[in-house]
């Protein structure tokens, strides 16, 4: 009999994933490698920046080094976003060390005047 194998608690990689939770909420989670965690222990501040693609940074949040996820609420529907984790030096300069994928927040309503119904999903 094969012994059961559980999922690992982490993959020891630097990853930052951004996902749309709803039209006005984005969720991000991250994993940092052990080496990255050691390097960050020397920095005093860790920031998570939300960026509108093509429009720059729209929000900056202080992050507790012991957390690994965050919700951005009040985002604009139908907009492209990305985010990055940044270390801040003593001069206040940002040093992004990991960037997320790009995601579009969903629209609140379907485009067009006709709207959308479940009947549109049924093919003849």
TrEMBL record:
Domain of life per record: Bacteria
Spans annotated as Disordered: 102-124
InterPro entries: DUF4912 (IPR032585)
Protein name, entry field: DUF4912 domain-containing protein
Originating organism: Pelotomaculum schinkii
């Amino acid at each position: 009999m094969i012994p059961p194998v559980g999922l690992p608690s982490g993959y020891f990689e630097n990853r930052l994933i951004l996902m749309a939770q709803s039209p006005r909420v984005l969720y991000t989670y991250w994993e940092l490698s052990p080496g990255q965690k050691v390097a960050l222990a020397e920095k005093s501040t860790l920031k998570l920046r939300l960026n509108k693609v093509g429009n720059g940074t729209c929000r900056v949040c202080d992050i507790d080094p012991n957390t690994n996820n965050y919700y951005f609420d009040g985002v604009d529907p139908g907009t492209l976003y990305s985010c990055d984790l940044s270390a801040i030096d003593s001069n206040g300069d940002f040093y992004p060390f990991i960037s997320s994928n790009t995601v579009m927040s969903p629209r609140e309503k379907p485009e067009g005047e006709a709207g959308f119904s479940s009947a549109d999903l049924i093919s003849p």
